[in-house]
């Protein structure tokens, strides 16, 4: 402590002597400016390094918040708490509920995103020369948009996913898939049909758990005995279940980055079902992508009533790794539960029409 005070006193004395010497010499401003140029340069360098260090730290924090999920989650949670604390002083809820910060001049009659845009007979000429669904691979968004989305022409992408045995989450672990399926069933799907339960919409959790036990074998032990065949159709509408399916099945490579995430999705499972059973028609809306994850599925695309005189019915078989992309503006989707000896797994997503 004594040493530091002595050093400080010596510095003050030296500084005073320097000031007195400068006063005696009385240099010009330019000479004084040039004499202290190295000092100024060092001071500015330290300031620039300090600003650069602060900018790099801020950028690193922003990237961590954007790319690291658990950091993003914590920052979002803290932000929500801060916004809640601000409510007594600033009611920001009208901005939260509004879709636009600037009010529209007048109400528009545009259809909602969830509702398919109405078709008219004059528009049906797009499929007059269309008789079969093309199968492509290595597709790009430009190809999809130019050759299919603009004309509502369905397409099958043949390399959307890996074969089921190479699935990164399940592979040969069928039990893990059944556990995830059970979670989806216990979350009260908004559209649930099956032949394994009487009144499936009112089934209790224990009945659903026992039903999943019937699916434990991924191949039928009874050959083609259709009396023991089954199908399960469910739709995930809740945010939690939709998020869970994103961990089960990743987006295909051709899913454009500017498309919004699917607002709902379907799971279709079946095995050894009667080949003459009536087809099933889930009610879908928007841009639909049906991914055949395992085995195969017979699908029928029918034109909507406005275009049934111009467009023909399309029958096709979706094989493993294939994805069918179409729009419900023009087509309705139906399928026949699989009559094969291996469980068919189909994952279907619905997103908005505006792509």
List the topology elements.
Blueprint: H1 2-25, H2 29-35, H3 37-67, H4 69-86, H5 93-97, E1 135-136, H6 141-149, E2 155-157, H7 174-186, E3 191-194, H8 205-213, E4 230-236, H9 239-248, E5 264-271, E6 287-294, E7 296-303, E8 314-319, E9 323-327, E10 331-336, E11 344-351
Parallel strand pairs: 1-2
Antiparallel strand pairs: 2-9, 3-4, 4-5, 5-11, 6-9, 6-11, 7-8, 7-10
Report on the architecture of this protein.
Keywords: Membrane, Transmembrane, Transmembrane helix. The chain crosses the membrane at residues 51-70. The protein has 355 residues and is of the alpha+beta class. It has 2 domains: 35-106, no CATH class; 121-351, Sandwich (Jelly Rolls). The chain is 35% helix and 18% strand. Helix 7 (174-186) runs antiparallel to helix 8. The protein is elongated, with a radius of gyration of 33 Å. The termini are far apart.
Number of domains: 2
Would you report the number of β strands?
11
Strand order of the largest sheet: 1-2-9-6-11-5-4-3
Instruction: Name the structural class.
Output: alpha+beta
Nearest-integer average pLDDT? 83
- Please provide the ordered H/E string of secondary-structure elements: HHHHHEHEHEHEHEEEEEEE
Radius of gyration: 33 Å
CATH architecture of the largest domain: Sandwich
Helix content: 25-40%
Low-confidence stretches: 107-113
* CATH topology term of the largest domain: Jelly Rolls
Strand content: 15-25%
The fourth-level CATH homologous superfamily of the largest domain is: Cupin
Q: How large is the count of helical segments?
A: 9
User: What does the main sheet amount to?
Assistant: 8 strands, mixed
CATH class of the largest domain: Mainly Beta
Distance between the termini: 72 Å
The rough form would be described as: elongated
